[in-house]
Amino acid sequence: MKKGIAAFFLCLLLTGCLDQLQLKNLLFVDVVGIDYVDDSKELKVNFVISALREANLGGGRQSALFMETTGANLYEAVSKTNKEIPGILSVLETRLYLISTKFAKEQPLDHLNIASQFASNPLYAYLAIYDGDLSKLLAKKSMKDQTVANFLIGLLDDEKTRGRIPSNKLLHYILGGTQFMNDFALNRFEPYKDSARLAGTSLFSDGRYTGINLSNEDTQLANLMGGETGKNQLIIGEQNGIHYSILVQNAKRHFKINTDADKLRDIAVDIQMDVKLIEDGPELKKHTNKELAKTEKAIEADLNSKAAKVIATIKQANCDYLQLAHEVAAFHPKVYSGLSWREQYPQIGIKPQVKVRILNNAILE
Length: 365
Description:
The structure is a single chain. The protein is an alpha/beta fold. It has 2 domains: 1-214, no CATH class; 227-365, GMP Synthetase, Chain A, domain 3 (2-Layer Sandwich), CATH 3.30.300. The protein is 34% helix and 37% strand. The protein has helices at residues 2-25, 74-84, 101-104, 108-112, 134-138, 148-162, 170-174, 216-225, 289-316, 324-331, 333-337, 341-344; strands at residues 26-36, 43-56, 59-71, 88-90, 96-100, 126-130, 184-192, 195-205, 208-214, 233-239, 242-260, 263-278, 349-362. Strands 1, 2, 3, 4, 5, 6, 7, 8 and 9 form a 9-stranded mixed β-sheet that branches. A 4-stranded mixed β-sheet has the order 10-11-12-13. It starts with a helix and ends with a strand.
């Protein structure tokens, strides 16, 4: 019995040693940056790599490494990098794919599809666009006392938690099908001082970056029109001399597809929004129902005006960001079959209709 127990523990120790040796050899790719080499179609691929050094039972020291290589595709780039540094390049823990604006204009998903063929693929990683020198950004040692990877991904995590930006997970675009998923908006980074910042979203039409962007404020509204519940989102605005600050408590979006016989007339994007009104000054003001109704109407008018501008922008880009083609095809197949959606989409009447209900006053925490 004692010999059996001893053998059991010996097996555990041996397994730990083997795992430790494998762990020491792994080079975890945190961020993958993709651009083109000059004016060619050869890929320039950047890797921000985290390696665990001094791996011992219960600990280890993380180090960061920046690598740049070229290749016809991601597979070739990974293969080249494995030959240039000791260790095994692993994309199992990749958290962000960051693409340049130049690369984004040339059907980027065609190149990214290959990521699904890696044995340990990082499809849960974010996909975002950087409007600047990608190599220069990712080669930085740190940003705001954080690693480059943690800084960029932290910005995305925080805004996604607030519901102000789309999720943009790679899985969504690679496995989502092509018929209705080729129009989307990617979160956009831009250079800012010695680091980078989120600067709204970039609009894609038929899988290509259009060069047209939504601001941070526009992205927030587009996300609400896209179905985000908007819990605790802060919205600030002004209408007819009435300045307001509201905390969204809940937002419900409904599409209303209006047809005449088998022809599409227009589409209403209805948003019912429950909000808390934030007051200025040391004391909360007391409002009459009449005053609250007036404030609600002013907020609705402002948000409807802003939402209409957002829709005008996505139509200008011929980007079906709200996936309205999917809605029409699903609920009005005869109507959809009679449309040439890509050609007719910019002329379709899409009308936002925001309704606001003020629940009570609130103090911003």
